[in-house]
Amino acid sequence: MLDETRDEGAVAAMMADVGRRAKAASRPLAIADAAQKRDALLGMADALVEATGEILAANALDMQNAGEGGMSASFRDRLVLDEERVRAMADGIRAIADLPDPVGEVIASWVRPNGLAIERVRTPLGVIGVIYESRPNVTADAGALCLKAGNAVILRGGSDSINSSTAIHACLVKGLTRAGLPADAIQIVPTTDRAAVGEMLKGLEGTIDVIVPRGGKSLVARVQAEARVPVFAHLEGICHVYVDASADLDMAKSIVVNAKMRRTSVCGAAETLLVDHKAAGTHLVPLVDALRQAGCEIRGSAAVVDMVPDIGRAVEADWSSEYNDAIISVMLVDGVAGAIDHIARYSSNHTEAVVAEDAQVVERFFNEVDSAILLHNASTQFADGGEFGMGAEIGIATGKMHARGPVGVEQLTSFKYRVRGSGQTRP
Amino acid sequence: MLDETRDEGAVAAMMADVGRRAKAASRPLAIADAAQKRDALLGMADALVEATGEILAANALDMQNAGEGGMSASFRDRLVLDEERVRAMADGIRAIADLPDPVGEVIASWVRPNGLAIERVRTPLGVIGVIYESRPNVTADAGALCLKAGNAVILRGGSDSINSSTAIHACLVKGLTRAGLPADAIQIVPTTDRAAVGEMLKGLEGTIDVIVPRGGKSLVARVQAEARVPVFAHLEGICHVYVDASADLDMAKSIVVNAKMRRTSVCGAAETLLVDHKAAGTHLVPLVDALRQAGCEIRGSAAVVDMVPDIGRAVEADWSSEYNDAIISVMLVDGVAGAIDHIARYSSNHTEAVVAEDAQVVERFFNEVDSAILLHNASTQFADGGEFGMGAEIGIATGKMHARGPVGVEQLTSFKYRVRGSGQTRP
Questions:
Q1: Whose CA is closest to B422, among A5, A378, A362?
Q2: What is the predicted ipTM?
């Protein structure tokens, strides 16, 4: 372990080696059969449970280094592990082990008039770089997901969790080697030097096929600004709920409260409530009251403030804020067209919901809003790979290239064409 | 039209405006119905035929500016237009008009145990930047393909073809406006200043969703090195044919000659012949003779030179050369494993063929070679969207992200999720 290496050349050389080893491991991994990968994953889960003591000791060291007294509650919650969390990590890996193996799946097949039989077949992407912050469980989740899809992975977690991540990583490697897969299939960056991230963003001499940033806004922004390799964009979730005049009010109340308050820290949490101005007299006050009763702070537009007593006034920045907290901005809009325009301007294209009984309103919202996930009469908090039935996910992609929405094992694959002939030449 | 603008700020401002207009056009375009896009495309085709005189006059000016006397035959062939080529462009657009509209297609749908009905639906990508060289017909092809998929497009052709491309572009705009679609849906960069390409590669203030480079190695290399937005990678085609000892010799001869010689300038042309050393005594000389009779120059490895008289010796650079000419490199390899290793080292991951009767050899080749297109007992020259039954294409992608292999209208789309509920909230 190199700590805070100051010599950039040394970091670059070390990271180039990490890249070469990942690339070398990716070839046998790409052709490993489903049973072998499953064995490796089950072995990782067992190893995690067996090593619970070591993992918790490493985590205690991280907590101590971070200065337990001074850290915020949310930071502490991200970093801290206990026996139950280690067991949850192991269970998560077992669930990934039991997913269908995506590699080799025939996605489409057809025969040409000249007899050529064409198949489009899923393949691994190759080498994935995952850059994340201080949640040690991402080490296990991301390592397992990438492996299931036949990819080698280079994990770069936050320096605050380096001891926890290293202990978890050792368990992943045990699972790999016990199943006869290369240890280099899952590597953890062996330094906390930030220059290592820069090297990953440059692609490690062409060895990294895609970077997945998983973390807060500033991490994702740095990755998107600096990366010279493809990135699965994971922007923040500035999610909207639009309540149409045709909405059932009780349904709207329960959806809005759930979308905002079930968990305020998830990317699928709603940040802005848009209410049809035609329903201002009937729906606005009850919706705001329901949110307030649930403990939510309200920041209204001028028109909303005029109609609802005792709420704060939203400023321009509120419409593009991901609060990660029990705060919501509220605006009256001119029907579904007004909602569509507001969302086009302020959304991060993650998830938006429409609550309406008018089918034409729903159709228009579904056609014209350009976000990864659109929901009708359901909470935005369903924006989750597990809830979609896609299994574990590495995040929700807000870009439009390759993966959009939940990024699970299927989204961590590419494909190739296999064409079978009987001597065909092209005229 | 600004020519050779020297003020970089002016180019940046002009290009930012191009980007904003494309972005603005992309919204109505994304929700335009299939019939309207089809009308626009048919209108473009008619306008091209009607304007044949103007287009040929503009092309004559380009030819004159390029100095007709001094240009190479291949450059001339790329740049020159005649009545038949204009008609072919129009016919190409009509064929695109008749393709199924990809936008709104439900790619997958399923229902969750809680009753949420999930659909994955094709959407446009948004704004596509196409950077190409001196083939004026790309203006028509790329403009029409992007429009069919509901995308706005910014076209940047080579400066040598600027007058031809501008005349063709005017016809595309006629088709758009006659059908009631925004003229800005297909824009041509209004300057030949190379700084405009740099601005496009920076993404025009976030307005460009993806860049498609279409041209030679140096153009693609510049785009890949400088682009700050996603790129559909189109590397050169260093395509291989592997002839196994189990191959039918006559079939192998006809496939090898076709793969190399049918058209030597296409990206699917073979550049290297790999022959199983177990078949050196039976297959090597007849294969080389067939190629020589077809007019091909042979560059052999040391072992090949020892066995075949009167051929040149390949140097290291030959194994990674796209000749675009009647030249082939030939090597003996240690069976399919040797072929796989050679291809992993030298291929551009475009297209490779195996000629073999042994099913295990084919299976191994199909599993272990990581290129976009793999063919068994068929010519590499089938690497083409039309031959795949996918309609017109903008190129063959060699990257693994989003699009791989032929990039047709479907590959120029993204998708979103539409989820229909009845009041579901997440527990």
A1: A378
A2: 0.92
